[in-house]
Design goal:
With 344 residues, this protein is mostly helical. Helix content is 69%, strand content 9%.
Length: 344
């Protein structure tokens, strides 16, 4: 898959996920928090399972999961049980717009875990972006100038993003395998796990209409979103895919104002500005790469009746944007002659 196609998949995945927070906020008035988390993932698993029936060839050609993938699959499922429950707890107790924007902390968690455990490279620019996103998350979590307490709602959401950050890295290890199998396993088993917890808690079961709405939301916001995310992740890596996913919280926050009529606070606006800057740096870091590499040029010329062969080796540094794996550049004749003159 080309980089551009992978980037489009990641952004589309973010757009699908963005509807989750504001619409979940509406449904949580009628559905229990753990039950809601269960229905969202079950909607994802069942929906993608049905979709796979119409794409049998694509699924058959994909590499199947094996025994060596089992630890990552188990980790993925457990984390996908815990994360949405924490998110629903945060949404039901706090502002939907704040919860959406705090979702960007998932970038920080994913990147730090990718570096610490899976040894993915992290640039200086990305570290600056992580610092800005972290600062924005702290501002959003702060309850006000009269108190130094952090809101429990924000802490629940941050807990969910950390779980998903680790889960993203588990999924990255198996992202080259069948996307259908990954999403179906995620959805069905994580959904059943959350549903078991809801039954243990004796949450009241919602009416059929709310169940159908939650399942449909899960198919779009989790199923289609995860499917596209995993496809993008196999080409971009965990840290970079989560970077493009940064657009989701901004869409979600906008929908919160449109659908839920939530008011803007100065704290939110300040955090939004810091978050936008951090997310922009992440996108630039993903697209732009600086390379320094060696070039060897061989020159043949005649001097005093004799033929001389010279090989000039020099470093060449340039920036380029990732549109695909290949890129090219050239040297002018004057530049090459200048390099040759240095050898005499």
């Amino acid at each position: 898959m080309s980089k551009i196609k992978a980037i489009l998949f990641a952004i589309l995945a973010a757009a699908f996920y963005a509807v989750n927070v504001p619409l979940s906020k509406l449904l949580l008035a009628h559905v229990g928090e753990t039950t809601m988390a269960a229905l969202l993932y079950l909607g994802a698993g069942v929906g993608i399972g049905i979709l796979s029936l119409f794409n049998k060839k694509d699924r058959a050609e994909s590499e199947k999961l094996g025994k060596s993938d089992l630890p990552y699959v188990i980790g993925m499922i457990i984390l996908d049980i815990v994360a949405p429950i924490l998110l629903m707890l945060g949404i039901s107790r706090g502002s939907s717009a704040n919860a959406s924007l705090l979702g960007n902390f998932e970038i920080v968690a994913t990147t730090v875990i990718a570096l610490a455990i899976f040894r993915e490279a992290v640039s200086r620019r990305l570290w600056i972006a992580i610092a800005l996103i972290t600062l924005s998350s702290i501002i959003l979590s702060f309850e006000g100038t009269d108190s130094f307490r952090f809101s429990y709602a924000s802490l629940f959401v941050l807990g969910a993003t950390i779980c998903w950050g680790l889960e993203n890295n588990c999924t990255r290890k198996i992202s080259s395998k069948s996307t259908y199998d990954i999403v179906i396993l995620k959805g069905v088993f994580s959904g059943l796990g959350a549903l078991a917890i809801a039954l243990i808690k004796r949450e009241a079961f919602p009416g059929f209409g709310y169940i159908a709405a939650a399942l449909a939301l899960g198919f779009v916001a989790y199923g289609l979103s995860i499917f596209l995310y995993v496809r993008a992740q196999s080409a971009l890596g965990a840290a970079k895919t989560s970077a493009y996913y940064a657009v989701a919280p901004f869409i979600g926050a906008f929908l919160s104002f449109v659908i839920l009529r939530e008011k803007l606070s100065w704290t939110y606006l300040i955090a939004l500005a810091v978050m936008v800057l951090g997310a922009a740096l992440v996108v630039v870091d993903t697209l732009k790469r600086n390379h320094t590499h060696l070039h060897a040029h061989t020159f043949t010329h005649t001097h005093d009746g004799s033929t001389h062969i010279h090989t000039v080796t020099h470093e060449h540094e340039h920036d380029h944007y990732l549109s695909d794996e290949k890129h090219g550049h050239h040297h002018s004749k004057a530049e090459l002659e200048k390099q040759l003159a240095k050898t005499h």
